[in-house]
């Protein structure tokens, strides 16, 4: 340990030293506990190369102090694994009048370091080092710099210290326990992509609308952002037809609709990515959705949408039901940005005439007779020589 600290002390700036401590821990300490090792003692964590949050925070504090950077260990409540369901769906109801968390529900430890002229900054070396996969619970080492010198107002979305002093915000801006547990769980991508939850504004739970038969989340995002979502029950992903994400042009909001097929508690995850990005985007927000046992079933499933649906910032007005009755008359109405041509294809072989699309307004509207198998909505823009499929309806 002394050898490591001597190497770090070769750097003159406290900022460099504290970063090297953070980085070293992220690359060398794994999350876990051995039954015969006291992993709250810094030396034990250092030797075992393993620890839980208290061990991470203790080692970070010890190394920081050894390299001349004042550091404190902070305990409190964090929205890590296992937190959302028991607290959001239980405790928040019986402690709704609590102004601050009882000491006994503290479940995490992190650090505050002092740099420069008495300014304190927040660091979570545990979360910065990696995470457990939600399905397999397998530990995944992955450096996350969001938890290095995190802005206090961002940190307070996921960490509430037992002592309000370590919120590191001015008195009027300090969070109450009630406000803390009323916020959804967000990750670094939420701040990096500058997202904002519009609805539900102050709740970790989404309300299921019994009248409409689905649930809704509204997200505000910069113009170059694309939003997607997933719906899970018992750690099993639901089919794509149970989620519909579209861009509401008039409100300039992303609308995420969820159509669970079973009652009970579901997990909703919102993802964000840059437009035209090849990756699937990062996890940004998590909600819980409780579906009642008795509900009206107005929709069986949403239409299947493909990547281009989001890239074109499409908005589907009708029909929202992804299953259509053969021989019925329906009107397909949607809004598609920046397309030069929109065409419907029936049963993979019948291309309907190129009409119904208004390039000025972006609206496509066409009434048709439902064929035997399926309907696809296809578009082409200035950069494409072929059509790409945006929406698929199936026939029953």
UniProtKB/TrEMBL annotation:
Pfam families, per the entry: Ig-like_KY (PF23265), Transglut_core (PF01841)
UniProt GO cellular component terms: cytoplasm
InterPro entries named among the record's database cross-references: CAP/Cytokinesis_protein (IPR052557), Ig-like_KY (IPR056564), Papain-like_cys_pep_sf (IPR038765), Transglutaminase-like (IPR002931)
Transglutaminase-like domain ranges (all copies): 45-127
Protein name: Transglutaminase-like domain-containing protein
Organism in which the protein naturally occurs: Adineta steineri
């Amino acid at each position: 340990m002394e050898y490591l600290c001597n190497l770090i002390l070769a750097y003159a700036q406290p900022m460099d030293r504290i970063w090297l401590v953070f980085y070293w821990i992220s690359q060398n300490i794994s999350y876990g506990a051995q039954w015969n090792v006291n992993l709250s003692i810094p030396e034990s964590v250092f030797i075992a190369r393993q620890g839980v949050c208290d061990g991470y925070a203790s080692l970070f504090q010890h190394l920081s102090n050894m390299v001349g950077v004042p550091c404190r260990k902070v305990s409190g409540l964090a929205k890590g694994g296992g937190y959302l369901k028991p607290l959001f769906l239980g405790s928040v109801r019986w402690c709704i009048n609590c102004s601050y968390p009882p000491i006994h529900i503290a479940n995490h430890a992190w650090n505050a370091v002092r740099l420069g002229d008495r300014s304190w900054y927040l660091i979570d070396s545990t979360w910065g080092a990696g995470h457990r996969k939600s399905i397999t619970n397998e530990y995944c080492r992955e450096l996350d710099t969001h938890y290095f010198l995190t802005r206090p107002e961002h940190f307070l979305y996921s960490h509430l210290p037992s002592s309000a002093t370590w919120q590191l915000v001015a008195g009027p801006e300090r969070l109450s326990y009630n406000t803390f547990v009323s916020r959804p769980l967000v990750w670094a991508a939420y701040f990096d992509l500058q997202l904002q939850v519009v609805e539900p504004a102050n709740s970790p739970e989404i309300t299921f609308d019994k009248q409409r038969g689905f649930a809704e989340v509204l997200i505000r995002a910069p113009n170059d952002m694309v939003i997607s979502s997933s719906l899970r029950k018992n750690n099993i992903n639901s089919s794509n037809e149970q989620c519909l994400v579209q861009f509401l042009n008039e409100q300039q909001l992303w609308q995420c609709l969820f159509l669970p097929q079973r009652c009970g508690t579901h997990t909703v995850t919102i993802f964000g990515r840059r437009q035209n990005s090849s990756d699937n985007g990062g996890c940004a927000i998590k909600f819980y959705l409780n579906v009642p046992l008795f509900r009206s079933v107005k929709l069986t499933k949403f239409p299947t949408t493909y990547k281009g649906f989001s890239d074109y910032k499409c908005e589907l007005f009708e029909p929202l039901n992804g299953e259509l009755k053969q021989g019925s008359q329906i009107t397909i109405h949607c809004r598609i940005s920046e397309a030069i041509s929109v065409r419907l294809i029936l049963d993979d072989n019948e291309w309907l005439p190129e009409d119904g699309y208004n390039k000025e307004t972006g609206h496509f509207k066409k009434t048709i007779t439902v064929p035997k198998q399926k309907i696809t909505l296809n578009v082409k823009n200035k950069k494409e020589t072929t059509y790409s499929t945006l929406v698929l309806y199936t026939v029953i």
